[in-house]
Amino acid sequence: KLPKNVTIKEVGPRDGLQNEKHQVPTEGKVSWIDSLSVTGLSYIEVSSFVHPKWIPQLADAANVLKQIKREQGLTYAALVPNLKGLDGALEAGVDEVSVFMSASEAHNRSNINKSIDATYPVLEEVVREAKLAGKTVRGYVSTVISCPYEGYIAPEKVRVVSERLFEMGIDELSLGETIGVAVPTQVEQLLENLLPHFDAGSLAMHFHDTRGTALANIVKSLEMGITTFDSALGGLGGCPYAKGASGNVATEDLLYMLHEMGIETGVDLDAVLKSAQLIEKTLCKPLRSRQMEILRGE
Ligand code: HMG
Ligand code: MG
C-alpha cells in the first residue's frame, strides 16, 4: 500500500531561514546550499524574491542563487509573490518558481497584504510569465487545516483555492500546514476531499511540526497516495506572518523514518547530517531534530 519512492523537497534555505533572527551572511547560505546539493536531493528551495522589508533574512536571494554551485539534475527554486519577484528570480537564473497564497482570508492578508480575490490576478500573471520563460511553477496553499487568526479551515475552501491555482497552470501544489496543529484524522479528511479532484502525484504535503505530529501526518499522507513531501534540515522554519508557527518537519527525521520503512528517497542521511552540522555552526544554536540530538549525544 505504501509507495516505494518518495521525493523530498528541501525548503530549509527558504522556509528554514525566513524565521531566523540571526542574519546569516550570503556566503554562509551559499556554502550550506552547496553542501545540500551533494546529498542526493533533487530539489532545493533556495530563497524568496519578496519585499526585503517583509523578510529581511532573504534580501540577498539574487546573490545566493548566482553564487551557489549548481548540481546537474537538481532543481533550484524560489518563492515569488508577484511580477517584480519573478523578474528578479528569472534574472538570477532560477529553475522553478513557487507562487503562494492562503486558504484563509486573514492569513492571506497578513502574509501578502491582499484579499484572496485580489491575489488571483497577481498570481495568474506570474504563472503565465514564468511559463513563457520556460519555467515550471509550484503553487502553495497555506493554512490548509487551521489558521492562526480564523481557526479551522474547511477542506472546501482549500479545494477552491487549489482549483484556481491549477487552472492558472501550476505544475504541482504544496499543501501547507502552516502552524503545525494538524493530526492524522484531519489530514485524512482534507485529502479525502481533495483527491477526487486532483491527482495525488501533483500534490505535495508541507507539514510544520509545532506539536510533534508531522511524521504521523506524513504516514497518513503516504497511505493515501502522496509521494512528495517538503521538509527543512534541522527542523528549521516558520512563517513570520503566522503567529505560533514553528519549524518544518526535519529532513533528517523524515529520511530516517522513510528509509527504515523501506521507502527510497535517493538522499544520503549521513550527508544531510553533515550539512545540518554546518548550518548549526552558522546559526550558533543546536538544531532541534531527533537525529541531531542523537548526533550530539543528548
Ligand atoms: P505590498 O506592500 O502590498 O506591495 O507587499 P506593493 O505591491 O504595494 O508594493 C509596495 C512596494 O514594495 C513597492 O516599492 C514595490 O516595488 C515593492 P515602492 O514603490 O514603495 O518603493 N515590492 C517589492 N520589492 C521587492 N520584491 C518584491 C516586491 N513586490 C513589491 N517581490 C508583498 C506585497 C507580497 C510584496 C509583501 O507582502 C511580501 O513581500 N510578502 C512576503 C511574505 C512572505 O514571504 N511570507 C513568508 C513566505 S509564505 C510561507 O512561509 C508559507 C509556506 O511556507 C507554506 C506554509 O507553511 O503554509 C510557503
Ligand atoms: Mg512553511
From TrEMBL:
Keywords assigned: Lyase, Metal-binding
Q: Which part of the chain is the Pyruvate carboxyltransferase domain? A: 6-273
| Single annotated GO MF | metal ion binding
What taxonomic lineage is listed for the species of origin? Answer: Bacteria, Bacillati, Bacillota, Bacilli, Bacillales
The record, for InterPro entries, names: Aldolase_TIM, HMGL, PYR_CT
One biological process term in Gene Ontology = L-leucine catabolic process
Write out the similarity annotation: Belongs to the HMG-CoA lyase family.
Q: What is this protein called?
A: Hydroxymethylglutaryl-CoA lyase
Biological source species: Mesobacillus campisalis
One Pfam family, please name it.
Answer: HMGL-like
